[in-house]
Amino acid sequence: MTALTSADLLQMFLHFLLMSLLSVGGAITTAPDIHRYLVDERHWLTDAQFTDSIALAQAAPGPNLLFVAVLGWNVAGPLGVVAAMSGILLPSSVLAWRVARWGRQRPEHLAVQVFTHGLTPLTVGLLLSTGWVLSQPVLVDAPGRWGGIALIAITVVAMLRTKVSPMWWIGLGAVAGALGAV
């Protein structure tokens, strides 16, 4: 855990504030840029700490965005949690509340329809970039590289061709990791 100055905490808050406005497919879609900021630019976390933080948060029950709290904690303890979580929650919550209210009153409006249809490719792209960043520690350095590649390929094909819940594929990944295959 790094001892951050109040200026650092403010910068982290502002970065998560910006990420909030880009978290169209959920907060996890901003993981590549959060990684760039916390690991590559600020050096507050290592690659392994970043990936472990996300894995821990995703394994815990609760909302998808718990990883932001874990990252904040690992960077600066309780103040890091406050900076990261308030930054990621405030703008998107207020914006979502206002836009949803406006859109519910005007479902046939062209802007509402264009917005709704335009978010799909954006969300898919953000999720693919998140998957790429999170797979790098396994695909680049791990001895289980080929197992990781096989698991990714199996999961992609299965998700495209079946209606099996993604939770089963997450479980398969957990078992493969526990057995040392990845």
Structure description:
With 182 residues, the chain is mainly α. The chain has a domain at 6-109. It contains seven helices and no strands. The chain has helices at residues 6-22, 31-41, 47-59, 66-105, 110-141, 145-161, 166-178. Helix 1 (6-22) crosses helix 4 (66-105) and helix 5 (110-141) packs antiparallel against helix 6. The protein is flat and about 50 Å long. The relative contact order is 0.12. The model has no long low-confidence stretch (mean pLDDT 87).
Task: List the topology elements.
Layout: H1 6-22, H2 31-41, H3 47-59, H4 66-105, H5 110-141, H6 145-161, H7 166-178
Helix pairs in contact: 1-4, 3-4, 5-6, 6-7
Strand content: under 5%
Which structural class should the secondary elements be placed in?
A: mainly alpha
Helix content: over 70%
Low-pLDDT runs? none
Count all strands and give the number: 0
| Alpha plus pi helix count | 7
Termini separation comes to 28 Å
| Rough outline | flat
Rg, please?
18 Å
- Spell out the helices and strands N to C: HHHHHHH
Question: What composes the largest sheet?
Answer: none
Mean pLDDT rating: 87
In brief:
The protein is built from seven helices and no strands. With 182 residues, the chain is mainly α.
Pick out its properties.
182 residues; mainly alpha; 0% strand
